[in-house]
Design goal:
Blueprint (H helix, E strand, L loop, with lengths): L7 H23 L19 H4 L4 E3 L6 E3 L5 E7 L6 H11 L5 E4 L1 H6 L1 H9 L3 E4 L12 H19 L1 E3 L1 E2 L12 H12 L3 E3 L3 E2 L8 H8 L9 E6 L6 H14 L5 E2 L2 H5 L5 E3 L2 H53 L24 E7 L6 H9 L7 E8 L5 H8 L4 E6 L4 H11 L4 E5 L3 E3 L3 H6 L7 E10 L5 H24 L9 E5 H7 L9 H12 L2 E12 L5 H21 L8 H38 L3 H24 L10 H4 L3 H17 L19 H5 L6
Helix pairs in contact: 1-11, 1-20, 3-9, 5-6, 6-11, 8-9, 11-16, 11-20, 11-21, 16-21, 17-18, 18-19, 18-20, 19-23, 20-21, 20-23
């Protein structure tokens, strides 16, 4: 029965990616990185109308006619712009509370959303809140729709954070009435038409420039002797506000004993309160914005940390791979006598260096390549006895007929109903006569010396299995080159490291050799996972038998020739590997050889083959976001360093495998298509596993690479 794969999760993945993009854009908008309002300020702007320029700092345009007001004598309205800030706003609130003074805070909507608790504290302690736009946009130069959006979002943020709207607003970059320009006046009239009371200032302390505490105090007390009231502009965010905090303390200490009253704007002018309670639906909508903004801020910080962590882990992994590859190379290429096992008793002979070998080839619809596979197995320089067993697993093409038609001695054909690759391998094991068993895929071609090199490590009785060196035969196109680079850099470098650490997770199905006694101990080839080669290898490692990598035992395999075929193959590999990891998970807590394997191998596979690829699409999206909307230098430099480091490692890996480095030119392109495809394979596999779905076996359509005589040219590669 054909098992349907889960499809609905692609919609969830698309929605998740869309949500992630929206949150990143929201955070970028809130901090001015996305959609920043223009500030094309004219050099000599025209002034506002004279009756406005010469009026007071508080403008009310409720009926369309501007009316300005000033603070009563000895009444000071301290106003703070750009907050709330988690560091400086609480300090200013503490100063005001000690002096029983109140003030007006013109808040930036994005910061309200990030600090809802602080916004509520401002209101709870008797202060009032005004709007200072959502992103500190210049309303004088921004289009009208942007200005209304800024004000509307700020109101929603206030509704979500504190359950109120505000009647007060102050335009960013505005100051005293006599400095009001015509563009600023137009923006003020639009705000007034929307029901806002526009607040300017009498005394701009310019504390944002940190001119010194004394200068701030002097500016704020410029009309102290005349006993005038005033609106004083200060800032509680936007940088170090220590001078502002100290200046407010001195202003209060100096003026309160003289009978000055420090209150809110609306109380000082005898106006209705600035805050208006909102309805439940408005509060819910505002809460959604606040939650989204806080989530976006948290997400951006988390993504930045993930980006750094992923880069650090990648560099660490690359260094470890190169280190262990060098160690492995020095070990296997060091001249010296072969390793002999410890003798059990006096006079016992050492093992035969060329024992009889049985080669088992499971084949299902391999008519395009089976002839070349069998021919390469027989064309060997191995001096020992050799038998080749081809197990036709219910092929619907002419695979079995081709093998029969060869009429070659030493080749045995077994026909059986289709039962899957594990059952075909086990059927071959049942009739094989040798202790050393070589398992070969039906699309694989050996070099003449491959079997000899593959069997050589078994002279050490501790060795239970040997992994060969798989190479891509059809590497002509860009997809073939990508897979060739992956095989050499990824798979083979990993195997060198696993060999040194004695925790090999996979002897590839394309080329592997096993002791019959070890296979019998683990129950032969398992059939309950889709990565039977990984499952089998992990089981062998847990017995304490060594699994080694033999770089000189080369097998040429036909890689998928299309992205669809590649997807199907890697999906099965990834899902099957996860199954095997879960099946052998107890090895992490076990003692002895099993525990050594589990603690060395499984965490590595979990981090680098599951977790990092799972989060990689989000990290790539964040890097893309940073490239377009933040500082592009960081992601570009990081990506360049990533490619250069990978190219350096790739050159070394190719040198180890005696391969030319010319294919590395496709490495940068690999980052834009191939890598993302592999990440999505992991996403699909994880979702399939979480849903409890059973993935069916995916067969790969063969193109007949070896039937075109390519195995002869490929076989020219030899090791020094």
């Amino acid at each position: 029965m054909r098992v349907r794969e889960p499809r609905g999760h692609w919609i969830l993945l698309l929605l998740g990616g869309t949500a992630l993009t929206v949150l990143l854009l929201l955070d970028g908008f809130a901090h001015g990185a996305v959609g920043e309002a223009p500030r094309d300020v004219p050099k000599h702007p025209a002034p506002a109308p004279q009756h406005v320029v010469s009026g007071g700092p508080v403008l009310n345009m409720a009926d369309g006619t501007p009316r300005s007001r000033r603070m009563p004598p000895k009444t000071i309205a301290l106003t703070f712009d750009d907050g709330p800030d988690p560091e400086w706003t609480p300090r200013l609130l503490d100063v005001l509370r000690r002096h029983d003074a109140h003030a007006t805070f013109f808040t930036v909507g994005a910061r309200v959303a990030e600090n809802p608790g602080l916004t509520r504290r401002i209101l709870h302690e008797g202060h009032e809140i005004g709007s200072h736009t959502y992103t500190h946009a210049d309303l004088a130069t921004a289009p009208a729709w942007r200005g209304r959006l800024e004000m509307d979002l700020t109101q929603r943020a206030l509704a979500g954070a504190a359950g109120v709207h505000t009647r007060l607003m102050r335009m960013p970059y505005s100051s005293r009435p006599d400095g009001l320009t015509a563009p600023e006046w137009r923006a003020a009239r639009r705000a007034g038409g929307d029901g806002y009371i526009v607040v300017l200032t009498d005394r701009d302390t310019e504390d944002w420039a940190r001119p010194g505490t004394a200068n701030i105090v002097e500016t704020a007390l410029a009309a102290e002797r005349r006993g005038e009231g005033a609106v004083v502009m200060l800032h509680d965010a936007g940088g170090d506000r220590a001078q502002t905090v100290a200046a407010v303390e001195q202003i209060l200490d100096r003026l309160q004993p003289q009978g000055y009253r420090f209150t809110t704007l609306t109380q000082g002018l005898g106006m209705p309160a600035a805050e208006v309670p909102v309805s439940a639906p408005e509060k819910a909508a505002g809460w959604t914005l606040v939650a989204a903004q806080r989530a976006a801020s948290t997400l951006t910080g988390t993504m930045g940390a993930l980006f750094a962590a992923a880069g650090l882990l990648y560099v660490l992994r690359l260094l470890l791979l190169l280190l262990f590859a060098h160690v492995h190379m020095r070990r296997v290429r060091r001249p010296g006598p072969p390793v002999m096992p410890k003798m059990k008793g006096y006079g016992e002979l050492p093992p035969d260096p060329f024992p009889p070998v049985s080669v088992i080839v499971p084949a299902y619809n391999e008519e395009a390549s089976i002839r070349a596979t069998v021919a390469s197995l027989l064309d060997t320089d191995y001096p020992g006895a050799l038998e080749v067993i081809v197990v036709d697993d219910g092929s619907t093409d002419s695979t079995a007929g081709i093998v029969e038609g060869l009429g070659l001695p030493g080749v045995q054909l077994i026909r059986k109903p289709n039962g899957g690759k594990p059952s075909a391998l086990n059927a071959g094991l049942f009739v094989a006569r040798s202790e050393i068993l070589v398992l070969v895929d039906g699309d694989t071609v050996f070099q003449r010396d491959t079997i000899r090199h593959l069997v050589a490590p078994f002279v050490d009785s501790r060795v239970g299995a040997v992994s060969g060196n798989t190479k891509v035969a059809n590497r002509g196109g860009i997809l073939g080159r990508w897979q060739h680079i992956e095989y050499v850099i990824g798979f083979n470098l990993d195997r060198r490291m696993f060999d040194v650490l004695q925790c090999m997770p996979t002897v590839p199905g394309a080329i592997g050799a096993f002791r019959r006694s070890v296979l019998a101990e683990v129950g032969c080839v398992p059939s309950d996972t889709l990565a039977e080669d990984t499952d089998l290898t992990m089981a062998i490692c847990r017995t304490g038998a060594r699994v080694v990598y033999q770089e000189k035992a080369i097998a040429w395999t036909e890689a998928p020739s299309s992205l669809r075929q590649l997807w199907r193959q890697r999906y099965r590999w990834c899902y099957g590997t996860m199954q095997a990891m879960w099946k052998h998970r107890r090895s992490i807590i076990e003692r002895g050889d099993s525990g050594r394997f589990g603690r060395r191998c499984l965490p590595y596979l979990t981090v680098f083959q599951v977790i990092l690829p799972l989060f990689a699409p989000a990290v790539d999206l964040f890097a893309l976001f940073g490239m377009f909307f933040l500082d592009p230098a960081a992601p570009i430099l990081t990506w360049t360093a990533f490619v250069v480091a990978q190219a350096a490692a790739g050159a070394y890996a190719l040198w180890l495998d005696h391969e030319p480095i010319r294919p590395l030119w496709v490495l940068p392109l690999q980052q834009f298509v191939y890598r993302q495809l592999m990440y999505l394979v992991v996403v699909q596999s994880v979702v399939t596993a979480l849903l409890g779905s059973r993935l069916g076996w995916h067969t790969i359509r063969r193109t007949g690479t070896f039937s075109q005589g390519q195995e002869q040219s490929q076989g020219a590669v030899r090791y020094r």
